[in-house]
Amino acid sequence: MEQIFAICRVAVAPIRASSADQAEITTQLLFGDQVEVLEKAEPWWRIRNAYDGYEGWIDFKQLGTLTQTEYEACKQRTALVPAAVSNQVIAADGSTYYLAASGNLPAYSNGYCKLGKEEFQVLFEPHDISAQTTGLKLVDSALFYLNAPYLWGGRTLFGIDCSGYVQAVFALYGIALHRDASQQAAQGEVVNFLPEAQTGDLAFFDNADGKIIHVGIMLNANQIIHASGKVRIDAIDDQGIYNPELGRYSHKLRIIKRFINPTPTP
């Protein structure tokens, strides 16, 4: 099959494990995410997300086609949808789209972005990822999602999973994380001991078989914000995350990784 490239032209689109409406949602595309089309089985296309390499099936009507030149240009993620509730863009026909935080605004200039040949007026100030990142800034964005419900495969304020959560937050600061917690655990620099953890570090947790199954963002060496039931703040120690509602440890600590420079001491 000839190379075909496309871009997500709706606010959020489900990516499924197989070509059926009943299939498991494994992740989501957000507005402006560009993909390579790997296979067609109308109305389903199997795609690969250019941002994190994740593959799955999507209804092709939620995509707009791109030339290879447009596809390559869209990879330059400099203007993103900020961590705010009412992010609106207006299509050429006058209709409104409400976008999720960390979505891409390709070819943004003078209040407009372009998805291939489609132009959208942007009614908000884009998030500029070029600013210097600190742990405190990152956590400020992480707190935007507080109480967002857990949703397997989700990437938005209205439903998000643990790895989708940290991926979205880090994307706002130009740090590209893989999609799954087990993949993310292979990135970053190891923090040897929990007391050395800094604001913005990622903590990873494993199951009885030693597989990484969970991830969260360290607020400090004693607290973590993570998506478990909802995005919540819990205590953490050498054993793992302690959930006071359950009255027990919910996740067993495996490793801590650092992706940004340590937070400066005031």
Automatic annotation (TrEMBL):
<dbReference type="InterPro" id="IPR038765">
    <property type="entry name" value="Papain-like_cys_pep_sf"/>
</dbReference>
<dbReference type="GO" id="GO:0006508">
    <property type="term" value="P:proteolysis"/>
</dbReference>
<protein>
    <submittedName>
        <fullName>Hydrolase</fullName>
    </submittedName>
</protein>
<comment type="similarity">
    <text>Belongs to the peptidase C40 family.</text>
</comment>
<dbReference type="InterPro" id="IPR000064">
    <property type="entry name" value="NLP_P60_dom"/>
</dbReference>
<dbReference type="InterPro" id="IPR041382">
    <property type="entry name" value="SH3_16"/>
</dbReference>
<keyword id="KW-0788">Thiol protease</keyword>
<keyword id="KW-0645">Protease</keyword>
<dbReference type="Pfam" id="PF18348">
    <property type="entry name" value="SH3_16"/>
</dbReference>
<dbReference type="InterPro" id="IPR051202">
    <property type="entry name" value="Peptidase_C40"/>
</dbReference>
<dbReference type="Pfam" id="PF00877">
    <property type="entry name" value="NLPC_P60"/>
</dbReference>
<feature type="domain" description="NlpC/P60">
    <location>
        <begin position="132"/>
        <end position="260"/>
    </location>
</feature>
<keyword id="KW-0378">Hydrolase</keyword>
<dbReference type="GO" id="GO:0008234">
    <property type="term" value="F:cysteine-type peptidase activity"/>
</dbReference>
